[in-house]
Amino acid sequence: MIHWLKQLRSAFGVAFLWLVCLIYFTQGFRSFVWTAVSYQLKDRLQLSPSASQFVFSVAFFPWSIKPLYGIISDCIPIGGKKRTPYLVISTVLSLVPWLLLGLDSTSRSSSLYLMIFLTVQNLGSAMADVVIDAMIAEAVRIDKSSFAGDLQSVSWFAMAVGGICGSLLGGYALNNLNIETIFLLFTVLPALQLLSCALVEEIPSNEPLPELLDSNEFEEKSKMSNDTYPDTKKSNTRRRKGQKKGKKGASSGKSEITQKKQSKSLASKLFQSLKTAALELCRAFKQPIILRPMAWFFIAHITVPNLSTVMFYYQTEVLLLDASFLGTARVVGWLGLMLGTFIYNRYLTNMTLRKSLLFAHIGLSITILLDMVLVSRANVGYGVSDKTMVLFGSALGDAINQLKFMPFLILSGRLCPPGIEGTLFALFMSINNLGNTVGSFMGAGLASLLGISSGSFENMFVGLAIQVFCTYIPVLFLFLIPKEATGVSAS
Known about the structure:
With 491 residues, this protein is an all-alpha fold. The chain is 75% helix and 0% strand. Helix 1 packs across helix 2 and helix 12 (233-244) packs antiparallel against helix 13. The longest helix is centred in the middle third of the chain and has 34 residues, at 252-285.
């Protein structure tokens, strides 16, 4: 273990490894503060379950447009750098909302302001996630490619540790601290992340912007990404002329005109660079081998209404489970996620993806049935406590969700064509996130339609029954998944 860590340190440097681990740890530790947000919406703002779920759905929308951040950072360098400036910007966007929510009582007392600040915070977190993924991809390129799996393992481990710590400490903090204090405490991590950005040196990129392509040229040149870039002398000349401006008074007028033309040319190239990247992405995504599987995963999310927020209300108001216990349940969920990853990698990689996804949805319907048993109080008649049901359901649910997510990761990794792997993979993840967001909207709509609200859970059983039925709708579309694809090979 120590030898392995020394190898990573010598390959990537302490500063880079520290930054990667810190960012992923912070992503996992977000459960510390988002538990407080759930209680803020329920207890202080007294929102209904459907209203709370709507707030969460809107707030997490920035995770659904991750490719946009990747395209912008790839095509529009800041000071010649594509990564660290955007990492600083994203960290500031993650830091400031929690700081304001902790210091300003008005911002956290209004559901609208709270939703806006949470959306901005998620914008920063999602952008940081894209940038650090790009930095990892660049770090392992060429001579360090053998460390790719090791670096991913470190990042996932850091996030898991952050999730466990955040869940444990979040429940304890809610029982002993004010919510505003929790918001302020969480700012320590993004502040530390902001300072850590200065430790990583990024070499300014000399890659010029893509040429202006017409539709016919794009079709041909998109296949040869190395030939899509022009010479950079004009942009360098523009900067040199900008520095000389004002030194020669007699030629200042001509210099201004020249600078305006060159500035317009640069803006045109920036726009065309963004356009070219977007067209390449769309062209790759429209291929049936990519479009069909991604369509299935999107359908699998939007056809199953997400009632997690409603269950949170039920667990706290009817079952009277405290924040500390719910934090423990989330830790058990993280352990279930790790167990699901281990089971898939150890026993299910040779199973066809169609079959593993079928079993995953059968398992998901069973976890919802357990919730129905909990809501009907049938477990009490058999001497099974509510806490046991919640802990078991949390572990089983997260394990099965991971069994479903692993095929998604496998297909996403294999379907990405060379040259745009990072951006296209970000698009795949965004489809997954967008599906989750739409599923949350569907859950909020279902709860509102059934009249499920705080203190009124009579139709909760019906809502869960509908959710069980919807779980099998994606099974009808499994033909979209490649027939012989497995966790080892795809065809």
